[in-house]
From TrEMBL:
Entry-linked PANTHER family: BLR8105 PROTEIN, INNER MEMBRANE PROTEIN-RELATED-RELATED
Protein name: DUF805 domain-containing protein
Region annotation Disordered: where it falls in the sequence: 135-171
Organism: Mesosutterella porci
InterPro entries according to UniProt: DUF805
Ranges that cross the membrane: 28-50, 56-73, 85-105
The keyword Transmembrane helix is assigned to this record: yes
Domain of life (superkingdom): Bacteria
Pfam families noted in UniProt: DUF805
Keywords: Membrane, Transmembrane, Transmembrane helix
Length: 171
């Protein structure tokens, strides 16, 4: 379970009806592969149905469903990199380049306006996080020592000048 009580997992990402939340690169790539295969299958089904005089609406409906789920996955991926879902229009206009950008950009660390990082990565310099850690750490615990400046963070503590070094800027 995630912190907000929702169960994570690939099926939840694959069948997300609403484009809310965030989607990491690896899950986005898997979703695109599945929905591209579904779209190709619906195109073959449409061709087969039309050649036999069948209704085209069935295949068109399957294509619309596949397209909707691919769209919601793209919007959630944009949320992960810190962009509004409206950027999906630009990504669609520049389809190959837009997909390359969405697949290559790292998600924003920590929480953004669309939710927590799906990878669980947090920024050390996030004041709300530091305050929460200070409130919830037990006296004498390793976290208490780090926050008070006696532990691995050094004499300055995790909440002062050491933030940039712990933030992963060197990697």
């Amino acid at each position: 379970m995630t912190e907000n009580g929702r169960r994570g997992g690939f099926l939840r990402d694959l069948f997300a009806v609403l484009p809310d939340g965030r989607l990491p690169r690896s899950r986005y790539a898997l979703c695109l592969i599945v929905w591209a295969a579904a779209l190709a299958a619906s195109a073959m089904a449409a061709s087969w149905l039309l050649s036999r005089g069948g209704p085209a609406w069935a295949a068109a409906g399957a294509a619309a469903v596949s397209g909707w789920f691919a769209l919601t996955a793209s919007v959630r991926r944009l949320h992960d990199i810190g962009r509004s879902g409206w950027w999906v229009i630009a990504a669609a206009a520049l389809l190959p380049l837009g997909l390359l950008v969405l697949l290559s950009m790292e998600g924003k660390p920590g929480e953004n306006r669309w939710g927590e990082n799906p990878k669980g990565l947090l920024r050390i310099d996030d004041e709300r996080l530091l305050e929460r850690l200070a409130r919830e750490s037990r006296p004498g615990s390793a976290m208490d020592e780090i926050l008070s400046g006696k532990g691995a963070a050094g004499p300055q503590g995790a909440g002062s000048q050491n933030q940039g070094e712990c933030n992963g800027k060197d990697s």
